[in-house]
Write the structure tokens for this entry.
Amino acid sequence: MGTPAPVHVVDDDEAVRESLRFLLEQEGMAVRTYAGGAALLAAAPAAAGCVLTDFHMPGMDGLELQARLATMGIGLPVIVMTGHGDVPVAVRAMKAGAVDFLEKPFADAQLLDAVRRALAANRLACEAAAEAARAGAQIARLTPREREVLDLLVAGRSSKEIAKVLGASPRTVDVHRGRVFHKLNATTLPDLVRLVLAAGGG
């Protein structure tokens, strides 16, 4: 299984940080704590995990932290903890990409549920990114002409139509087509379509 993806807890109140750490670690989660947003940004967290941040913090509030993470290209799901009456703030956080908000005081079960959802969403996003990288690397092995043939195949063109578009003979196109299928370890046209979509094409 490897190391569990960490929950990054950001709160300027040490007692709150430690109580959240205890709760999450009791559930088998890996936890890293930070006294403020700047400390989390300085740590430059990896793509796996999620962020649980308080909204009201000196220096940099939860919304600014969320914006800074996005600017740095760190796509960790963010859960914002807000005080009573901060629902408009929470709505702004959700519009800016936060996956959830928790209005204090919240039940332990509510927090754990939000964190589990965020970690599950992050796991799917990381898997999709890894698949896209693999697919992109496979497609990058094609020659420029093979890439053209792939794009036309995925667009639904027949070998005869591809030959006309590329000004080549159908026989030459069939050779390229065979190489495309071989290099991409594909056996059917839907295999090619899936690979192109996984790589972010289409």
